[in-house]
Amino acid sequence: MKIDVMTKDKDTKTVVPALRFPEFRDGEGWHNVRLIDVTDKRIKWHFTGGPFGSNLKASDYTNSGIRVIQLQNIGDGYFVEDYKIYTSIEKSDELLGCNIYPGNIIMSKMGDPVGRACLIPDNEDRYLMCSDGIKLVIDEDKNDKYFIIKAINAEEFRRKIERSATGSTRKRISLDTLRDLTLLISNNKVEQKKIAECLGSLDDLISAVADKIEILKEYKKGLMQQLFPAEGKTTPAFRFPEFQNAGEWKDTTLGEEVYYENGKAHENDINETGKYIVVNSKFISTDGEVVKYTDNPSCLANKGDILMVLSDVPNGRAIAKCFIVDCNNKYTVNQRVCKLTPKKAVALLLYYSINRNPFLLAFDDGIKQTNLKKDDVLNCLFRLPQEPQEQQRIADCLLSVDELISTEIAKLDQLKAHKKGLMQQLFPKLQ
Length: 431
Description:
The chain is of the alpha+beta class. It has helices at 89-94, 145-153, 155-164, 175-179, 189-227, 254-257, 281-285, 347-354, 358-361, 374-378, 388-426; strands spanning 4-5, 19-20, 31-34, 47-49, 61-62, 66-69, 85-87, 99-100, 105-108, 117-119, 127-129, 133-136, 182-185, 250-253, 258-262, 270-271, 276-279, 292-294, 300-301, 306-309, 311-312, 322-324, 331-333, 337-342, 370-371, 381-384. Among the domains are: 31-185, DNA methylase specificity domains (Adenine-n6-DNA-methyltransferase TaqI, Chain A, domain 2); 250-384, DNA methylase specificity domains (Adenine-n6-DNA-methyltransferase TaqI, Chain A, domain 2, Alpha-Beta Complex). Helices cover 31% and strands 19% of the residues. The strands form eight sheets. A five-stranded mixed beta sheet has the order 5-7-6-11-8. A five-stranded mixed beta sheet has the order 16-18-17-23-19. A four-stranded antiparallel beta sheet has the order 4-12-9-10, with helices on one face. The two termini are 28 Å apart. The model is unreliable at 1-12 (pLDDT under 50).
């Protein structure tokens, strides 16, 4: 697929993308249009928000009926199938203007990032928006809806939304503000369609890699169920041949297997270019994506140490989540994270045994914040093979799957970076 490099037309002052398909290189420049003006005004509710909070309460939710689209379902260019809740047909009919249908676009009034958009799938005949959803019915006689989604999620428009959003903690944009924000688009629907198809093919690759990652994660989960004894059992369902006669696994506690140390506060010593990574709950819960640095390590971790999150919100995904240290003199442990140093057991198998261990997750009552204490952690019950060689063999097996997952995650990150760069070229910027 050939794309020509373009520049800004100095004579006409029209704006064109840096990359343009050859058949459109002599076409007119792109134009600013209000978001409201890409919608189909022939449709009664072509641009509308979700219901007021008082009109759709938790008591209106049901086990079946009309699916309610939550903020969590609105991905950045894709629909997230998780988080399924429903309301009655009667309630949905009562809020008919807030109903949304397959092929419509939904945007988020708030969240991270605010203003992200995706297409409504055809899994249901209709849906009901949550209060922080915004429905767009695109005028498909003039515009390609897949292109409009890309334009909304493009960097240029995203910056406009962020500048127009309000709120100190969670940014929010109003319906009235959003409707008048301008999109920079091609007026040629054929060009729109070609750009959408180009980016869509890349989205398909991204989706395929993401699916592979999820498959590998499920495979690892199933493998662990086979390699570790089930509840009430003292040997696993699957055992490597050389350890078939190695005897039962031993019951143990973390207190028997590790030395414990609480992390220390680093908040006053954070800087952007520090020598050491501060391992806090955010670092662990995001698998290292959110990083802070310091030059003053108050609780240095060594290779083989296991770092565990001690505090999290109700039903959070961080409590008891672990990180195993891969080298010396790189990480320092923050408060609300503990450092567990193995005594004799293989560190990697300990990590797999205690990461989000059910014993520790049981302290989360789903109502108030969970704060694990030292004794809670050290009293954690689990089983280990008695032979260090078997411990190592299991750890190596699981590590090989983790390495496959890491490879695919790196591939996914590269594809996303490529897409971001391509969008910056395919969508012009106003100077």
